[in-house]
Amino acid sequence: MRMYGFLAVVMITLLAAAPALAKPIVIKFSHVVAVDTPKGQAAEQFKKLVEERSNGDIKVEVYPNSSLFNDKDVMAPLMTNAVQMAAPSFSKFTKFAPSLQLVDLPFLFDDSDHLHRVLQGEVGQKMRNAVGKKGLVGLAFWDNGFKQLSANKPLLLPKDAEGLKFRIMSSKVLEAQFKAVGANPQVLPFSEVYSALQQGVVDACENPLSNFYTKKFYEVQSDLTISNHGYLGYLVVTNKIFWNKLSDQQRELVSQAMKEATEYGNGLAQKMNQSYLQKVKDSGKTTVHNLTPEQRKAWKEKMVTIYPEFYDVIGKDLIDAAIAAGNQ
Ligand code: LMR
């Protein structure tokens, strides 16, 4: 009888301990930029909120700086659920969902309010639907900022870019944009840009200031032009295998944390890029050039000639809707 009593106590203890022993759900979140960037900070905030609110039942492992995968390679493990989340720039979706190249179109957005109106409206929903058809779930749009041009010479007019090898993300729009000014675009993963610039594999690139500074491109580019010619932002995605396995409660918790992390990161983006501009100047290694209105107009006139090439791929309706949202 004493033996049965002992066994009962053991069973009760084990059952009570079971929830604590249950493995936490793990979200591997892969990205390619430094922690001290808008995306890096938003990812850390998301981790903090999810882990606090789930009492450790959901763990978020953030892998910055391409430490798990670079952007090109992350799509396959994301689809098979080896990675649960990533926040690639729109350009990196080109093969899966070509319409997302909308955001790459040069001189499309007047400012970030214009971009936000587009992403928060019907156009943004269509972009999320496009990745939904490929087994992914678009969770949020994260900001970085407007891109600036850099090289080892001042880029003041389009003719200054002629013949230069420009590193680009994997987007046909970006390829066409640089061809339009007589440059030679070359696709490279973000993790390889510094060494490619250092070794002269490419001569020039385009980046928001946070990426330019945190990846130390100012060490290998003597001139930076504040061109604000295009936008770089992200679509945070998970896959449906992972998403559908979560309980309703867990999905709600993750969605709410994502919403708050998005507000947090997007609130930081503009300020961060501004402060990195000062740091680039303070480095004393890169000369910063501001374009006159005439010079900026000259870049615009050349680059916007590519729009009709993408009416079919992106959808003329999406392009027109995005343009129209600028005059509100
Ligand atoms: C790039 O490849 O230049 C960007 O996508 C990097 C990033 O994620 O901001």
Describe this structure in words.
The protein is of the alpha/beta class. Helix content is 46%, strand content 17%. It contains 12 helices and 11 strands. The chain has helices spanning 2-21, 38-53, 71-79, 112-120, 122-132, 172-179, 193-198, 209-214, 240-245, 248-283, 293-303, 311-324; strands spanning 25-30, 58-63, 85-86, 136-146, 148-151, 165-168, 184-187, 205-207, 223-226, 231-239, 287-290. Strands 2-1-3-10-4 form a 5-stranded mixed sheet, with helices on both faces. It has a 4-stranded mixed sheet with strand order 8-5-9-11. Strands 6-7 form a two-stranded parallel ribbon. Helix 2 (38-53) links the parallel strand 1 and strand 2. Helix 2 packs antiparallel against helix 10 (248-283). The protein is globular and about 60 Å long. (2S)-2-hydroxybutanedioic acid is lined by residues 32-33, 71, 89, 144, 169, 190, 211, 232. Residues 32-33, 71, 89, 144, 169, 190, 211, 232 line the site of (2S)-2-hydroxybutanedioic acid (LMR).
Secondary-structure blueprint of this entry?
Elements: H1 2-21, E1 25-30, H2 38-53, E2 58-63, H3 71-79, E3 85-86, H4 112-120, H5 122-132, E4 136-146, E5 148-151, E6 165-168, H6 172-179, E7 184-187, H7 193-198, E8 205-207, H8 209-214, E9 223-226, E10 231-239, H9 240-245, H10 248-283, E11 287-290, H11 293-303, H12 311-324
Helix pairs in contact: 2-10
The chain binds (2S)-2-hydroxybutanedioic acid.
(2S)-2-hydroxybutanedioic acid is lined by residues 32-33, 71, 89, 144, 169, 190, 211, 232.
